[in-house]
Amino acid sequence: VLTSFLVLVLAVLLAVPLYAPTHVFDPVVLKQIAEDAVAKGGNSTVVVERVMMSVKEKYPSWTVDDPGHAWFFNVAGGAMGSMTILHASLSEYVIIFGTALGTEGSTGRFLADDWFTILWGEQWAHTAGKLDKEVYKPGDQHHLAFGDTKQYKMPDECWALEYARGNIVSMLPFGVFSVLFNTVDFVTLWDTVWWTAQQMIGNLNKGKV
């Protein structure tokens, strides 16, 4: 009985965000927010803070109360950086992700679309079979389509506004497994689970899948 119940819960978590989504955020709007912030200039801290405040102004009901108040490391697919959550629900997330040093790894392959809009620095990407790299600079938006995967690299300091739409729950093991079997950093694991769950449950209480 317990096994059947767990299978049912898993099936619901996987299916509901795909078949009954309530999308709030728009990648076109988020790209415009990023472009405007980049155009106004400033260092990386100024640009990132400007973007977080602009997202809050545009989506006040669905963005965390104090954008940027909680930063923590993220290790996934061989890449390491830090992130802060602006929104997380079962069908969407919006975060700031990046690194002051540079990093490289796999994007992962997900039941979701992912839009990665560069705020500072560069992101390089490589698709299997293509011999030339893709280069994304401030204001550019890199779209990783549902079910696709790429190798990516931030050759130096790079920060981005990342928006994912689809089954967000299915994306979580990508980061969790890297912590469990690579860094064994349970503080980072706790931070990831705590802040993500807090947002998802809070948005579910507001009727947001």
Shape: globular
- Percent in helix: 25-40%
Mean pLDDT: 92
Low-confidence stretches: none
**Main beta sheet: strand number and arrangement?**
6 strands, antiparallel
Radius of gyration: 17 Å
Biggest sheet strand order reads 1-2-3-10-5-8
SSE-based structural type: alpha+beta
Structure description:
By secondary structure, the chain is of the alpha+beta class. It has five helices and ten strands. The protein has helices spanning 2-19, 27-39, 44-58, 172-183, 186-205, and strands at 72-76, 79-88, 92-99, 103-106, 112-120, 123-126, 134-136, 141-144, 151-154, 158-166. The chain has a six-stranded antiparallel β-sheet with strand order 1-2-3-10-5-8. A four-stranded antiparallel β-sheet has the order 4-9-6-7, with no helix packed on it. A hairpin with a 7-residue loop joins strand 6 and strand 7 (134-136). The longest helix has 20 residues, at 186-205. The chain is globular and about 55 Å long.
Please summarize what this structure is.
With 209 residues, the protein is α+β, with helices and mostly antiparallel strands. Helices cover 37% and strands 29% of the residues. Helix 2 packs antiparallel against helix 3.
Which key terms come to mind for this protein?
10 strands; 209 residues; four-stranded antiparallel sheet; 5 helices; six-stranded antiparallel sheet; 37% helix; 29% strand; alpha+beta
Question: Which secondary structure elements does this structure contain, and how are they paired or packed?
Answer:
Elements (H helix, E strand, L loop, with lengths): L1 H18 L7 H13 L4 H15 L13 E5 L2 E10 L3 E8 L3 E4 L5 E9 L2 E4 L7 E3 L4 E4 L6 E4 L3 E9 L5 H12 L2 H20 L4
Antiparallel strand pairs: 1-2, 2-3, 3-10, 4-9, 5-8, 5-10, 6-7, 6-9
Helix pairs in contact: 2-3
